[in-house]
Amino acid sequence: MGIVERAVQEAQAHAQAQAEAKAGGPAAATARAEPAASLRTTPLEPVPPVARSLDDTSLTARDLKAIVHLDVEQLRRAGRLPSAEMATQTDEEIRRIKWPLLNAIAGRNGLPPARNNVVLVTSALPGEGKTFTSLNLALSIVRDRELRVVLVDGDVARPGLTPTLGLEGQPGLVDALEDTAHDVGLVTYQTDVEGLFFVPAGKWHPHAPEFLAGSRMPEIIEALSRRVGRGVIILDSPPLLSTNEAQVATRYAGQVLLVVRADVTPQQAVLDAVALVDKAARVSAVLNASQAPVLSRYYGQHHYGYGYGYGEGHGRQDRTGTGDVDRG
User: Which domains does the chain have, with CATH numbers?
Assistant: First the structure.
């Protein structure tokens, strides 16, 4: 059983216990239960949030308009999660990716501390697997229980998770960027995975790319950073070579995770993408959808950890590796 299945089961058990306590017994809770056959949003009842070991004063019920339900099978069909057969191996690989990121945020193991708790996940070109990496990384981090994660769909021109989670056309990041009076908490959604929150891309706007590159964006990032406390913000960014705003967005991140698709992404595209990343950000690379012989070569040269996984829009279930990027 993978990270997502365990997290959803735990969240559902917690929700059922709350419903029984409020209604006076298991029968009333069962009668009120709804099937989770598809992705949907439901009104959030004004109940206290689950207590977590966090040093923050935010992400309370007053911030959250709805609960977003994660349908595991739907996410698998959309290429956002690995198949059931690959779930355990993917869990292991994502752990190898998350630990260096968390250690840098905390300044552990001799690593230079990251400048903030923002991890920007991007790629050189579309279709490399950045959204798959973003979601699975977020689900892995919240398994630590002491950390919350706010996952932000920052690819406003071509949203990935927003339509998959049934929030297309709903207020989100673009709305908060356009209206300075629009608090980001109003577009922060709770999910039924404990500790995981989501900010959708928002309603389409012709000037959305300019908004992402504007002066309002660092204010939004700072507000989310305060709200998540000791947690992590994961920003699913546009590809670096596809839009100008992706390059600007790297200024707000402490760490940049560059997803590279093996045997697909041209080497020069990777070099050009790395050159666009803000110099103050620590850059790591994920080698995605690599066959074992290719990974062995990369592992020997660059000390990549490895496991299994596949990227968005692709069915290959091959190896994935990760490692730091030397920018000279």
Answer: 38-324 (3.40.50.300)
